[in-house]
């Protein structure tokens, strides 16, 4: 069969560009027009066969007539346009969005603008890699601590971390008589109603008594400054060299007079040993053996 050339309007209809405004632009991107020329396929009906005969002279009825149509296909180029986005300077494309780029990784924070990190609480610096000053806390470490007596504060919450010998929300109160140490949790070991130093727990002996716990009476009726000094070490610590006030602490204890227990993660004499327990296990502060958390076993 044969085909006829179609009018251009049948095959290459013009596709108008959609209206555009800056409000339609994605965030941190600018758009440019991009021309597309995909190959399109179209079809139309084409009459086939002989044309119908004309009306015979003297006749008022036309002869029988039928026209056969067949579908004819043709390919042509269809021109269309679409909006192409490009991220602005300092941004890159990720999952169909323009994301800010930071030259240095935000170690403890996130990139919120080109080369600008937003730090997590307790961290500061251009790349959020520095901890807060001990007397500052909060986002970018901009909030001052309100703690007293040399206390520092938690970099996340601002809660005061009291030094040994003090307690209270702002560490404004000394330990109650008979207690000492961090959080005033330790009990003084002094005898004869002697008071103890609220920071280290050293016994302040009354007249006529001496010793690490004020347990020894002064010899020959001496008292006060004339009372001979004894080794001040507590919990089995010894003075070394002899006739000095320098303590060698037994396992599990530390401090100038061996009055402070080893902190978490340390053990041994003077708490010089470092625990090697894993998965939440705690170690004995005397010998360092690991006590495993529920669900775990093994030496460490």
TrEMBL record:
Residues 137-172, 223-259 form the EGF-like domain. Gene3D superfamilies: Laminin (2.10.25.10), Tie2 ligand-binding domain superfamily (2.170.300.10). It holds the Pfam family EGF_PEAR1L. Transmembrane segments: none annotated. Its main location: membrane. It is a single-pass membrane protein. One of its GO terms (cellular component) is plasma membrane. Disulfide bonds join 162-171, 249-258. It comes from the Eukaryota. This is Platelet endothelial aggregation receptor 1.
């Amino acid at each position: 069969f044969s085909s006829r050339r179609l009018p251009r309007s049948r095959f290459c209809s013009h596709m108008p560009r959609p209206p555009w405004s800056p409000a339609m632009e994605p965030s941190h991107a600018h758009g440019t027009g991009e021309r597309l020329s995909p190959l399109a396929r179209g079809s139309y009906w084409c009459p086939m066969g002989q044309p119908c005969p004309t009306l015979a002279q003297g006749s008022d009825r036309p002869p029988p007539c039928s026209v056969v149509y067949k579908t004819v296909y043709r390919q042509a180029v269809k021109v269309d346009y679409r909006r192409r986005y490009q991220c602005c300077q300092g941004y890159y494309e990720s999952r169909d969005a323009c994301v800010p780029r930071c030259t240095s990784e935000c170690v403890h924070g996130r990139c919120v603008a080109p080369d600008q990190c937003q730090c997590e609480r307790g961290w500061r610096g251009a790349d959020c890699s520095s901890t807060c000053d001990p007397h500052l806390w909060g986002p970018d470490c901009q909030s001052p601590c309100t703690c007293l007596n040399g206390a520092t504060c938690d970099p996340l919450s601002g809660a005061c971390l009291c030094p040994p010998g003090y307690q209270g929300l702002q560490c404004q109160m000394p330990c109650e008589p008979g207690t000492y140490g961090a959080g005033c949790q330790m009990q003084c070991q002094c005898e004869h109603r002697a008071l103890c130093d609220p920071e280290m727990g050293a016994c302040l002996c009354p007249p006529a008594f001496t010793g690490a716990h004020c347990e020894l009476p002064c010899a020959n009726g001496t008292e006060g400054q004339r009372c001979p000094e004894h080794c001040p070490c507590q919990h089995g610590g010894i003075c070394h060299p002899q006739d000095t006030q320098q303590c060698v602490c037994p396992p599990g204890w530390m401090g100038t007079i061996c009055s402070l227990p080893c902190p978490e993660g340390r053990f041994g004499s003077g708490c010089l040993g470092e625990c090697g327990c894993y998965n939440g296990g705690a170690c004995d502060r005397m010998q360092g053996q690991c006590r495993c958390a529920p669900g775990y076993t093994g030496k460490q």
